[in-house]
Structures are given as structure tokens and as C-alpha cells.
Amino acid sequence: MLYNNLFVSFYSVNLLFFISTLSAYAFCIFNKVPFYSEQYKNNLTKLKTIAFNGSMSLVESVYLTNYFLSNDIVVYQTNNAVKTLTNIFLYSVYVEFIYYVLHRLYHTKYLYKIIHKKHHEKYDVYPLDAFYFSFIDLQSLFVSLGVPFYLLRMSFYEYFFVLYVYLTFAYISHSKILYEHHIIHHKYMKYNFCILIPYFDLILQTYK
Questions:
Q1: Around Cβ 5, how many Cβ atoms within 10 Å?
Q2: d(CA 134, CA 80)
Q3: Is the pLDDT of residue 87 over 80?
Q4: Strand pairing of 74-75 and 154-155?
Q5: Which domain holds residue 154?
Q6: Mean pLDDT over residues 119-141, rounded?
Q7: 12 falls within a domain
Q8: Does some domain include residue 159?
Q9: Is residue 208 part of a domain?
């Protein structure tokens, strides 16, 4: 079972990243929006950061998926429609709350300089910039996306779906396709701290 979980984790995570990236790229092509900046070609440091974070995301995702499956935190059994919809909704609430708290902390003066400044180096952002951040930022994202699975007994299909949605929209949110939630955050710095659904921005009056 251990090797089976590891195989499923490796295969599913790589598939997840592939179809999510392909979806976002195709969406950009359809909307005639660049997926990355042409300036990347002359900025090896930025490309290395993006490549490193992308690689680390894959490795950590495989490890965590294997851990969740091996410890029945995420289960292979399927849930009924009501349970599935409830899990997906609660997952989004938990993720947005954790990320909102961490993100606001990282915009305080001291933490911003040592953790979050890299991600805000430029106002003009592109989908590939979803992976341009510091190592601590990366771990914070894993905390935000991972902790809710301990609170919900989600099926593997639900697990795959919510991660696909959040990863795909992490790309798309770094463009003006569909909505400008995160673009506005990059512009003004003091609004829109949630990832995808602005529950807590609305509640705490940081939504713009």
C-alpha cells in the first residue's frame, strides 16, 4: 500500500501540475494575454527562482499527498454530492482564512522586507509570476492549502479538484483575465489579501 500511495501521489501531482499549467496557458492564449514576460529571457535570476519554486512545489506536493493518503487524511472512498459540496465550501473558507492571516502579517513592515518583498518587486505581473516568491512564502502557501485537509476528511477526487482550482487560479489571478482581485493587491498593497474568494477581505473591509 505504501508503494501504491507513492505511485498515486507522484502520478497525480505531476498530472495536476501539467493540466493546471496547460489550462492556464490555454486560457491566456484564448484571451490573448501573455503567460510570461518577454523580459524573463534576460533575467536568469528570476527564471531560476520560478524554476526552483516550481520544482519544490512538485516535490513537496508529492510528499504531502503520499502522507495524506498513507495516514487516511485524504481517503480513496467517494462521498455523496452533499458531502462533497460541503467539503469544497469549507475547504475554501479554511484556506482563505489561513492565507488571509499570513498574508496580512507578511505585509507588516518587518516581515514584508524579509519574506514577501520579492513577490512584489514589479507591479506588472504575469501568470508565471505565481511562482515568483521567497521560500517562506512558498511554505506559507503549503500551510494554507494543506492544514484544511486535517480538518476535513476529503476524498481523493475532492482533494485533486480543490488543488486544481487553486493552482489554476493562482496563475490566472496574476493577469487581468476574469477578475483583477490580485492585480489590485499588487497595485495598492493594502487590499485583497485572500487567494481566490474574498470572504475575509469583505468581512474585514480590505476588499477593493
A1: 17
A2: 39
A3: yes
A4: parallel
A5: 2-203
A6: 90
A7: yes
A8: yes
A9: no
